[in-house]
Amino acid sequence: MKKYNIYVSYLAEKDLEEIVLYIQNKLYAPKVALEFLDGFELFIENLSVMPFKNPLVKDKRLALKGYRYYIFNNYLVFYTINEKELCVDIHRILYSRRNWMYML
Q1: pTM check: above 0.85
Q2: Which of 30, 64, 88, 100 suits a disulfide with 94, CB 3.0-4.6 Å?
């Protein structure tokens, strides 16, 4: 079974950091923030062996670029796959109710 390298973009890292800080400081739930990070790590592990499991986005312009998404709690993780390089690029982690199409 092929294993893909996972690369998290600067913007996705910032998204993740903001989400965790929001959960810790605004929702006063540090345990939930840690559980969120643990769940994200598990997602990364699964993504490295099954990147094609998740669907392409419904937006045609982004789908043509190969954007896929994964629903993670209340967030959408957007990524693309580079089959030639055996890598997955995570571009953004956005709140699902935001107008995310214009943020990609």
Answers
A1: yes
A2: 100
